[in-house]
């Protein structure tokens, strides 16, 4: 954790542990642009702001998870209908 000018920055590993997501998920969203990250050094560490990760988790990640769960249950209902017929 790094504090600069009242902002708290986390490494991707710290953010993944804190928000129960994988590091690869965070990397993917930084590359897509849905999560803003700051690269430190040419190739090394990516830092994300704590407030930004909280926003991302609330607005992007949870919405995508809800869509996946809804799709799963819809498919399961369809399979039950097919087996009953």
SSE diagram, text form:
Elements: E1 2-4, E2 7-11, H1 12-19, H2 23-32, E3 37-40, E4 45-49, H3 50-84
Task: Please characterize this protein's 3D structure.
The protein has 85 residues and is α+β, with helices and mostly antiparallel strands. 62% of the residues lie in helices and 20% in strands. The protein is built from 3 helices and 4 strands; from the N terminus they run ββααββα. The chain has a 4-stranded antiparallel sheet with strand order 1-2-4-3. A hairpin with a 4-residue loop joins strand 3 and strand 4.
Characteristics:
85 residues; 4 strands; alpha+beta; four-stranded antiparallel β-sheet; 62% helix
Radius of gyration, in angstroms, nearest whole number: 18 Å
Low-confidence residue ranges: none
* Cα end-to-end separation: 57 Å
Helix content, binned percent: 55-70%
Q: Largest beta sheet: what is the strand line-up?
A: 1-2-4-3
Shape category: elongated
Mean pLDDT: 86
Structural class by helix and strand composition: alpha+beta
**Number of E strands:** 4
Hey, roughly how much beta strand do the residues contain?
A: 15-25%
Task: Give, in order, the helices and strands.
Answer: EEHHEEH
Largest sheet: 4 strands, antiparallel
- The number of helical segments is 3
